[in-house]
Write a structure and sequence with these properties.
Elements lengths: L1 H17 L16 E3 L8 E4 L7 E5 L1 H6 L8 E5 L5 H4 L10 E5 L2 H4 L5 H5 L13 H18 L4 H22 L6 H20 L1 H9 L8 H7 L5 H20 L3 E6 L4 H10 L2 H11 L3 E3 L17 H17 L3
Parallel strand pairs: 3-4, 3-5, 5-6, 6-7
Antiparallel strand pairs: 1-2, 2-4
Helix pairs in contact: 6-7
């Protein structure tokens, strides 16, 4: 028995010696993006994690929020996020919700970024509602009508087909998630079984864990993308929209929302591009004028690692989420 205890102690000591030298886990072994959420204005779909209706704490922002906020670190919280989503798209969705505590991501890019014109063009085409009995037929009709409209307006066919295909897939997945009735119970059960099986396989097989632990971090991967999206031509428009965003936040405050703003960590290279596009003090001044707390973690480039320059690794994201929970609680939020 003493030998077993001794071996266990030696193994623990070896692990504690080696673990700090192991690479950070880059991606979550099983990633939960949340359910698909369709904005009321017919814009691009976003994601919702947690209960949007009954949560007492709501995080809003782009994909940095997804990789930096883990709901098990917070009590009764939800996340409304979208890859590339900006605040002009997300904040109007809060109008129909009961006021509560709100944590808003603030970066130069999620204030405003240029968008593909294809999504805006499609708002003229009525989108079918996932979950409806005749959704499959309506979805096919929508895809054809949307494709014809974009091609008539001179959009490149390859770009149109890729765009329509992505939207078609997203809407059908959401329909299968919502639809659970006697007429398609076999399909619904098969769909859920497939999702459950994928999660189990991703958890127990070695390949995803190998990718998670040993994925090569490239903190300059999106530098050129950010430089393009934050180009000098976009800056006057971004400043105008920032004033609009400030007004929208003030209106939410007047309705009873308790707001704080957060600037999430990113790589040093991406931060340099952001600061060139918008001086650091600009976002801080916005929060001062609103009288809301501002938590700026953008300078913690050595403390938190990203796997691509803008999204926290799984290891850093878990650590940051706990830090954010403590800081919000310490500020009485």
């Amino acid at each position: 028995m003493f030998l077993s205890v001794g071996v266990f102690a030696v193994l623990c000591a070896a692990w504690y010696a080696v673990a700090p030298r192991m690479p950070e886990v880059a991606r979550p072994p099983v990633e939960d993006t949340g359910r698909l959420y369709w904005p009321a204005d017919g814009g691009d779909p976003v994601h919702c994690k947690g209960d949007l209706e009954s949560s007492e704490l709501l995080f809003v922002g782009a994909s940095r929020v997804h990789y930096g906020v883990y709901l098990d670190d917070f009590e009764n919280a939800a996340v409304l996020w979208g890859g590339g989503a900006d605040l002009l798209q997300l904040l109007p969705e809060l109008e129909r919700l009961t006021p509560r505590r709100l944590v808003v991501e603030l970066t130069p890019l999620n204030v405003f970024q240029p968008r593909s014109p294809l999504g805006a063009e499609l708002r003229a085409v009525r989108r079918p509602v996932p979950g409806a009995a005749d959704f499959e037929e309506e979805l096919l009709e929508w895809a054809q009508a949307a494709r014809d409209l974009l091609l008539e307006r001179g959009k490149p066919q390859a770009q149109v087909d890729a765009f329509i295909g992505q939207w078609f897939s997203l809407q059908r997945q959401e329909h299968l998630r919502l639809r659970f009735s006697t007429e398609n119970v076999d399909r619904a059960l098969a769909d859920r079984w497939t999702l459950a099986r994928e999660k189990v396989v991703r958890t127990v097989t070695t390949h995803p864990w190998h990718d998670a632990w040993f994925d090569v971090l490239d903190e300059e991967r999106f530098v050129d993308t950010y430089r393009f999206r934050l180009s000098p031509e976009t800056r006057p428009k971004r400043e105008q929209i920032l004033v609009t965003v400030q007004g929208m936040l003030a209106e939410l405050q007047a309705k009873g929302w308790k707001i704080s703003c957060v600037r999430y960590p990113c790589s040093e290279a991406v931060l340099a591009v952001e600061l060139e596009a918008m001086p650091r003090g600009r976002l801080e001044r916005l929060c001062e004028e609103l009288g809301v707390p501002y938590f700026d973690y953008s300078q913690a480039t050595d403390e938190y690692l990203t796997y691509d320059g803008t999204h926290l690794t799984y290891t850093s994201g878990r650590r940051f989420s706990r830090t954010l929970a403590r800081d919000l609680a310490a500020a009485g939020f």
